[in-house]
Amino acid sequence: MRVTNLDMDAVRSFVAGIDAGSFARAADRLGRSTSAVSAQLKKLEEQTGTELVRRSGRGLALTDGGELFLSYARRLLSLNDEAIGAVRSPELEGWIRLGIQEDFGETLLPRVLGRFARAHPRVRVEGRIARNGELKEKIGSGQLDLALAWDDGSAAPGQRIAALPLCWLTAAEQEPAWQAGRDEPLPLAALEAPCLLRTIACTHLDRQGIAWRIAFVSPSLGGLWAATAAGLGIALRTPLGRPPTVRVLDPAAHGLPSLPSLGLCLLRSGASENRIADHLDAILRQALQDMLPAEWSRSS
Predict the structure, then answer these.
(1) For each successive 10 residues of the chain (300 residues), what is the average pLDDT?
(2) Are 294 and 66 in contact (CB under 8 A)?
(3) For residue 263, what are the β-bridge partners?
(4) Do 266 and 255 reside in the same domain of the chain?
(5) Domain limits at 239?
(6) Is residue 234 within 8 Å of 249, Cβ to Cβ?
(7) Residue-wise DSSP of 245-264
């Protein structure tokens, strides 16, 4: 049987087109003409022997084959880039200090550390899982080289890399701890202040005229999930890392305020050029793109 070797440039254009929502936008990002990117897609469909995308209104939609191929395409690109990074920079050694939100501790951190360690085995990573305020403070003081933090409105151009939806959360197997129209305040489960998401929750409840009380406070995300799953209160968080014991509430159906998206930023210290940080930065961005839905990965 003849072995087919996929064109990696075509694979990259395909993924870029899906992430951008159109191959015209992908062409701009890749610095190529739209016709060239379209030709690559056609070549990729010939190589795979299946139609990958179809027109859907003004945008694009994946076929069943395209949806299956997309997951493989992301893995192929990730391994390709990891391999190139490893052989081109075997001399990298030293250490790097990374700070990350607790929300990403179990979902993102293992894959990032694994990829980075394989590519740069002589670099030591010092990781810190911390709250937003601490991460920003340590970036400002130079105690961290990179940090993945929520955008509190102060992000500079280029720092914001994703926008995650916010949602109201309650116990999966119980009725919500609060019902609209009842003469009682909404019990809120939250992290200890200062907390950006706690502030957002209180602000939106106040704007809608909903009385609230702090029913449970935790210093950790694990404690917050446990309290919410036990029905002690309603929490506000992103869906990222949500355990199966907690479910998302439809705001309209439960009389709760609609919520905005929350920006995610990749912050770097103001130190001089850091090649190790450059490589970890690239791996973090790629891992987030692989993990998050395409609509979340766009910062606009």
Answers:
(1) 80 82 74 82 87 76 87 84 67 84 82 82 86 89 91 78 92 85 89 92 94 93 93 92 91 92 88 78 82 66
(2) no
(3) 163
(4) no
(5) 167-259
(6) yes
(7) TEEEE-HHHHTPPP--EEEE
